[in-house]
Amino acid sequence: MTARPSPDPEHPLTNVPAEGGNAVHDRQPDLDIVVPAYNEEARLGPTLRALAAHTATLPLRVQITVVDNGSVDRSAEVVDEVAQQRPGNTELRLIGCARQGKGAAVRRGLLASTARYRGFCDADLSTPPQVLTDVLGHLERGAPVVIGSRRAPGASYAVAQPLVRRLGSSTFRMLTRPMVGEVADTQCGFKFFSGDAAQQIFSRVTARGFAFDVEVLAVANRLGMPVVEVPVRWTDQAGSSFHVWSHGRRVVSEVVAVRAALARMS
């Protein structure tokens, strides 16, 4: 069974207490995968089953934490339904986040974790869960930050992106490179961290929107943490809320805000 969504405390975020007898909480998980969800009832079930099917092959105690970001659909019920099927040895839990935005939900989940390795993936699972095996290999060898990348050598797209999307991505990379260093792909929604790195990074991250991933990597860069990029085969999923033309100005303003926040960071 899952724990029901817990309240969303203000800073600092605290660990979510377990319901009595939940084994994954009695023993600290090795890996915690955070999945932010806002009205994701259609995609959440297949994503959780695919993640659980792969994590069952890993020699680790794994927990998947779904962070409900104020959904008004059946997202919470879907998590319960999957949990009742007890997929492999993976445990599911559900917590809430009252603050809107993917960044707020991911931050909530990662700072509420005590796992040795922690990370997040999007509810649409555009990155295959099998990439976790490579990610964990790097983490176990001491890398503090390991991310999926659509531009690392060996990466590919299942379907080529439209020209306008590619042009927008190139412009975005030029805009953000001074903050993130040599990272080729900031926006792939598949990022994992050592527990210590997650605590240090996400206790400083404040962005909640499109610039959230940039701030995560910019903070890591500022803290001197190397980032390993693992190539992925990316599948664009229908239902994306991002559109280059309508959101371009907002993206630029958020990146400027991240730059200002970095300048204030001690």
Number of domains: 2
Mean pLDDT: 84
CATH topology term of the largest domain: Spore Coat Polysaccharide Biosynthesis Protein SpsA, Chain A
Low-pLDDT runs: 9-25
Distance between the termini: 42 Å
Helix segment tally: 9
- Top CATH class of the largest domain: Alpha Beta
What is the structural class?
Answer: alpha/beta
Label the CATH architecture of the largest domain.
Alpha-Beta Complex
Give the C-alpha Rg.
17 Å
User: Main sheet: which strands, in order across?
Assistant: 3-2-1-4-7-5-8
Which strand-content bin applies to the residues?
A: 15-25%
Number of strands: 9
* CATH homologous superfamily heading of the largest domain: Spore Coat Polysaccharide Biosynthesis Protein SpsA, Chain A
Report on this structure.
With 266 residues, this protein is of the alpha/beta class. The protein has two domains: 1-125, Spore Coat Polysaccharide Biosynthesis Protein SpsA, Chain A; 130-261, Spore Coat Polysaccharide Biosynthesis Protein SpsA, Chain A. Helix content is 40%, strand content 17%. The strands form two sheets. It has a seven-stranded mixed β-sheet with strand order 3-2-1-4-7-5-8. The protein has a two-stranded parallel sheet with strand order 6-9. Helix 2 links the parallel strand 1 (31-37) and strand 2 (62-68). The chain starts with 22 loop residues before the first helix and ends with a helix. 42% of the residues are buried.
